Amino acid sequence: MLITAWVCAVAVMVFFAVVAYLMPSEDTGVIFRPVDQASMMVIGAFVAGGLLLMARPRVRADGHGIEIRNVVLTRWFPWPEVYGISFPDGASSARLELPDDEYHPILAVQAVDRGLAVRNVRTLRDLHRDAVRRG
Hints:
This protein has helices spanning about 1-20, 35-50, 115-135; strands at about 60, 65-70, 75-80, 85, 95-100, 100-110. It is an alpha+beta fold. It has two domains: about 1-55, no CATH class; about 55-135, PH-domain like (Roll), CATH 2.30.29.30. The strands form two sheets. A three-stranded antiparallel beta sheet has the order 1-2-3, covered by helices on one side. A three-stranded antiparallel beta sheet has the order 4-5-6, covered by helices on one side. Strand 2 and strand 3 (about 75-80) form a beta hairpin.
């Protein structure tokens, strides 16, 4: 996901740079000025920045708890508050099982990662199991 987000962001910036460069050369009856070209680059930067938000998800875990950073928010959960880590059939990402039938998605562990996702879920389950035994 990280590589895909960066490649797409670079491709979007190149596309908008080419469009901005070619704007004044097309005879469409509209007069494009340098500010219009700069505006195209700013729009491209916003689109690329939005794509790079997909590169933000991260998960960190230790013996005390787990920190999950999804696209915008970061949350930390102590292990005693976590019932388990699951990866439901057909789901695109793993999730933390929490009290009261709630869950929190772990966007850093995606189904498209296949073997890596399996290893990550097993590692998180091992950390959770060890922390529950100790505590």
